[in-house]
Specification:
The chain is an alpha+beta fold. The chain is about 25% helix and about 25% strand.
Amino acid sequence: MNGSTTPGRAASPGDEGLYEMPLPRLKLTPESSHGPLDGAWWPRCDALELELPALIGMLNPAAGAVTGVTVDSASWPDAPRLVMAPGQVVAVTGTLLASEEHAITLDCGTLGRWELLVIPPDEPRGTATRLLNSAADPENALSAARLLALAEGGVGGEAAWESEGGHGDRA
């Protein structure tokens, strides 16, 4: 799944016009994934109604239209039920399943699902870059919650990060 160069558009709170979000910070697994994740997304803020249209707008149309999105209810407690994305309205469902913690699932109809690690917007750039690279690594075997927990473990978590399959920056 490759990105395009068109940012998403969404209604801006308190504004009758459209607000154009910058291109999403997104890294996808090349070709096909062999692990629990298909990449990672690092939103700029926690306003899903602004961030999600930009994310959906970046996805390759050949992957199929996004028919639904599942988000972690703890991370997105105010998630709207519907989001206007480029050329479509997408249903948003919340979940409290531990397996979905710190993740977003994009359903593309008959073409499958894409599971992405959601990196908190306030994550430091270095950590976020490492998480983007690790989640998009086809050999990654860690869940979204485990990757994030290891990354936030600080210096002591570095050895566990590497031993459990996390990878440093690989430009």
